Amino acid sequence: MSKQQNTDDQMITLIDENGNEQLFKELFTFDSDDWGKSYIFIYPAEQENDDSVDIQAYAIADNQDGDGEDLVPIEDDKEWDMVEEVLNTFLDNDGNFKA
């Protein structure tokens, strides 16, 4: 999935394989020395004030053209466990965060 960075409040537009665009807000990014990758947590911008949000996690990789970044799904179970642990550390005891 390719991304376009917007300057307003860490907004990201994701473009799927069909060319559809959806606006997301960046929750946070982090680097993992163990996996040698950077990761990003995002959620749909329209859910910002909702009681629950759909947080998505991706690995960040340079795109093939070398002129930007792509968000890559996390498919390895051990890698996903590490990413999930980072998110759980970020969330409070009730599983909430302040957007």
UniProtKB/TrEMBL annotation:
Domain of life: Bacteria
Cross-referenced InterPro entries: UPF0473
Pfam families: DUF1292
Family: Belongs to the UPF0473 family.
Protein name per its UniProtKB record: UPF0473 protein H9564_04350
